[in-house]
Amino acid sequence: MKLSRFLSVAAIACIGFVGTAQAEVKLSVAEMEHATQIYFDRCAGCHGMLRKGALGPALTPEKLKEKGYDSASLKHIIHEGTPGGMPEWGKSGEITAAETDLMAKYIQLPAPQPPEKSLKDMKDTHKVLIPVKDRPKAPEMKNWKDYFAVILRDVGQIAIIDGVTKDIMSVVPSGYATHITRTGASGRYMYVIGRDGKASVIDLWMKEPKNVAEIRVCNDARAIDTSKHKDFLDKYAVVGCYWPPSIVTLEAETLEPLKIVSTASYTWDTGEYTREARVAAIIASHDKPEWVINIKETGQVWLYDYSNIMNPKITMVNAERFLHDGGWDLSKRYFMTAANSRHIISVIDTKEGKLVANIPSQGNIPHPGRGVNVDHPKFGPVWGTGHIGSADIVFIGTDPKNHPKNAWKVVKKIKLPGDGGGNLFIKGHPNSKYIFVDRPVNPDRELQTQIYVIDRDTLEFVKTIKIDPKYLEPAKTADGKEIQARGPVHFEFNADGSEVWTSIWGNKLKASPILIYDTKTLELKKVINDERLKTPTGKFNVTNTMTDTY
Ligand code: DHE
């Protein structure tokens, strides 16, 4: 997203004020624009647009002063990262020395005020690219339920890949720094959200899947989902926005915007007003016309009843602050979600509409993605997560009826080999003997570039899979500088669980492969190498996403 569309006039105006108020730090308008763009791209997700902190600490000028940070110490942190999970932006080559210097100055100035967005603003960007009547009446290709949508993050595209033939069916444009995709309940439509709040929908019934509608609903977003209750199949989509903090519902087939609900509210515990109460994970109930929505900064999970779309009923469940990602337990009754900077897993009972437990995750910064479910012979159903800030993988009992002693307790904790965390995703499939774990943000190069394998029956770590260095070759900038690929990130299984896919998190200057492993033998079975595959990160199989299988 170009900054000029993002920064408000008010924000530009504040630059003059900044220069005079804090004589020691001055930036020109051009520098301010450049820094704001970098902040949006690299920092806002963790520290917040208004810099009040969430996963990362608050970065307001007052807080930095209170902690005694000057430009030199800030530059050091931006360059080197921290063991707590802050990436080494300078060292990794992702931002230059001059930009590191710029950012150290920028965060000592007040944050620019980002713009608001109205229903009219949204409507002005809404396009139905292929009307419903002109779309296929039946699937044109037979394997569509085993397609994968692969995020090509830094080029803002989605690759649709046939999970059976491994052919790239199409590469479709999407929003800026595209984040995730989710399918509708029938699987036919794949919904995509970009970090710039651009939502798009791809019709997978087409011989060459294409966007059929698009709209920009906010300026910063991470989540999208759909109505999965049987009476509302393919009826509504919902976008969760970071800025303006809001929930936007859309008509599913056309993305016509229907309703905006602001999430700015009060923290559940201390009752402080929080303008930046961002929407993190959204998950759709299969049993009720309900979305389960994490409101990050206030620490509430909202149970959003969409059966009367223009007059929704919302149950606000107090959980814990800084809610991030999460997924269903095996029964799909309990939502297991990470309040990551509090090291807590909150459990929401969606049948009763209440918090069941806030469980210390026994590690540093749980980051489950959707997590992993196992029906374990000894513990009964368990749900597992890894951690960004430590090597712990934990499994929590989730069946209070038949295994009450294990329910809502960490029943098994294992450590990945080597120091530190760096894990982002863990994934399983009922037909796979193994669970797979990545570690792309561990600072150690060897640990960062391996896949970690856990046995589903014993829940013990059994093996690392090393990635052949030929798949990790660095990208080269025009002036010959090398930028390393981070290593494998995220996993997804094919529909029958016989294969697991991961991808190398490279740089957009160079294509990166998708690696496909046999889930019985753990052998590398196939590599998809294609010039179009730049920065492949998240991968979403139609059947598994539709059915919430993980
Ligand atoms: Fe994500 C899920 C937010 C960075 C890949 N990420 C999520 C969810 C949230 C979130 C709230 C849950 C969505 C849901 O289930 O509805 N992600 C954020 C951030 O705020 C953060 C930390 C920083 C930012 O500025 O965006 C961030 N995420 C990343 C990445 O850098 C990743 C690794 C690569 C990329 O492509 O952006 C990344 N996030 C993902 C993926 C999922 C995800 C693949 C879905 C996991 C799944 O299996 O369902």
Q: How would you portray this structure in words?
A:
It is a single chain. The chain is 14% helix and 35% strand. The strands form ten sheets. A five-stranded antiparallel β-sheet has the order 1-8-7-6-5. Strands 4-3-2-37 form a four-stranded antiparallel β-sheet. Strands 9-10-11-12 form a four-stranded antiparallel β-sheet, covered by helices on one side. α2 (29-47) packs across α5 (97-106). With 550 residues, it is mainly β. The radius of gyration is 22 Å and the shape is globular. It has a domain at 4-106: Cytochrome Bc1 Complex, Chain D, domain 2, CATH 1.10.760. Bound molecules: heme D.
Write a concise keyword list for the protein shown above.
550 residues, five-stranded antiparallel β-sheet, four-stranded antiparallel β-sheet, 35% strand, binds heme D
Q: What topology emerges from the helices and strands here?
A:
Blueprint: H1 9-21, H2 29-47, H3 61-66, H4 71-80, H5 97-106, H6 119-125, E1 127-128, E2 147-152, E3 157-162, E4 168-173, E5 180-183, E6 189-193, E7 198-203, E8 210-216, E9 220-226, E10 236-243, E11 246-251, E12 257-262, E13 265-266, E14 273-274, E15 279-284, E16 290-295, E17 300-305, E18 313-318, E19 323-328, E20 334-339, E21 344-349, E22 354-360, E23 372-376, E24 380-385, E25 392-397, E26 410-415, E27 426-427, E28 434-437, H7 445-448, E29 450-455, E30 461-466, E31 475-476, E32 482-483, E33 488-493, E34 499-504, E35 514-518, E36 524-528, E37 536-541, H8 542-547
Antiparallel strand pairs: 1-8, 2-3, 2-37, 3-4, 5-6, 6-7, 7-8, 9-10, 10-11, 11-12, 13-14, 15-16, 16-17, 17-18, 19-20, 20-21, 21-22, 23-24, 24-25, 25-26, 27-28, 28-29, 29-30, 31-32, 33-34, 34-35, 35-36
Bound molecules: heme D.
Residues 45-46, 151, 153, 179-180, 222-223, 280-282, 324-325, 369-370, 424-425, 489-490, 537-538 line the site of heme D.
